[in-house]
Amino acid sequence: MRSMKTWTMIAVLLGGLGALAQAAPVALDITNPGFDDDVLAPGGYTTGGCAGWTQFQGLTGCQYAGAGLPALSGNNVAFLSNHQVGYSGMYQTLKVDGSALSVVEGGVIDLSLYQGHRSDYQPGVTQEFSIQLWRDEIGGSGTKIYDTGTLGSVADGTWVERQISYTATASDVGKDILLLLWSNTASQVCLEDVSGTYDVPEPATMSLLALGGLGVLIRRRKR
Ligand SMILES: [Ca+2]
């Protein structure tokens, strides 16, 4: 009987180890991920960012999508565009369940979004879009911790998925992490459907504790 009980406990411990090794990523809580929170009429648009997204520089907003680039979700898409200064961006703080994401060293942030190009506005123009992560704040005393660099232009009338993956460092712990969508030209860049996950690394300490418990059980069984 004791042997059966011991083996059952070992199986439970091993199962626990497996669960730790396969800890599921949690979904990032992106505010207004499809840029549809602003209710717009056909042809309508916002300026100065859009709901949940703060304009950093230039001219940004949401627009009611037209036939030149149909929306992937709802009626709206976001745009980055500025004819005056030639760059623009908007951002939000990454969150989980409504609270600012709190990373640990080794935690992995994965993000996906769609970059689009209208066929009915500035067709064929060169886009210089990049995805950036900042720590603390955008600009000012903030630190840029990730930058895709310039991503290529998207063909007229199409969407292309862009993905990034960032592993948090010790310096990121306890700091807000902000996602900045940035255009480095006056050319319009359209954006849709931002999503992401945060994956906590396997808690090595817990695994060692579990292994220690396993060792104790095996020693007991050998007596
Ligand atoms: Ca949308």
CATH topology of the largest domain: Jelly Rolls
> Tell me about the biggest sheet?
6 strands, antiparallel
Sequence of secondary-structure elements: HEEEEEEEEEEEEEEH
Determine Rg (CA atoms, Å): 23 Å
Multimeric organization: single chain
Fraction of residues in helices? 10-25%
Task: Please state the average pLDDT score.
Answer: 89
How many distinct domains?
2
CATH architectural group of the largest domain: Sandwich
Strand content: 35-45%
Summarize the structure.
By secondary structure, the protein is α+β, with helices and mostly antiparallel strands. It contains two helices and 14 strands. Helix 1 (2-21) packs antiparallel against helix 2 (204-222).
Core attributes:
223 residues, 2 helices, Jelly Rolls, six-stranded antiparallel β-sheet, binds calcium ion, 2 domains, alpha+beta
Secondary-structure blueprint:
Elements: H1 2-21, E1 26-27, E2 49-50, E3 53-57, E4 60-64, E5 76-80, E6 88-93, E7 95-96, E8 99-100, E9 108-117, E10 129-135, E11 143-147, E12 158-167, E13 177-183, E14 189-199, H2 204-222
Antiparallel strand pairs: 1-14, 2-3, 3-6, 4-5, 5-14, 6-13, 7-8, 9-12, 9-14, 10-11, 10-13
The chain binds calcium ion (CA).
Calcium ion is lined by residues 34-36, 71, 73-74, 76-77, 192.
